[in-house]
Amino acid sequence: MSDTIFGKIISGEIPSEFIYEDEYCVVINDINPQAPVHVLIIPRQGISRLADAEDADQALLGHLMLVAGKVARQLGVEEAFRLIINNGAEAGQTVFHLHLHLIAGRKFAEGQMAG
Ligand code: AMP
After folding, report:
1. What is the rounded CA–CA span in Å between residue 28 and residue 25?
2. Whole-model pTM over 0.85
């Protein structure tokens, strides 16, 4: 767990609706969605940044990807979605508890990495 807003959401200190949860992660709607579907896949374990993940986190990181596919199917967007991880403040990371953004439901510009 981490002492961030996501740590507090996971611990229940801040109430939030989980659209998916399992032993290893929770999925919530982003409070400031950038697309019709914008959810956050958050491991219960509080790794602060992807760059701080270790070899021992391999299974967890793979699990988060599998959950992304599962949640995309659950939300009916499995044909077109984008996953984004911001690593570091200069890359736009604002919450220092690892999370994957799953974004869908709008047209993505071809070849464009973000936005
Ligand atoms: P990042 O900028 O990659 O660290 O992403 C943090 C994301 O968390 C942003 O898209 C915020 O809109 C989102 N966010 C911040 N606080 C909350 C919250 N309480 N519930 C849901 N999403 C949040």
Report:
1. 10
2. yes
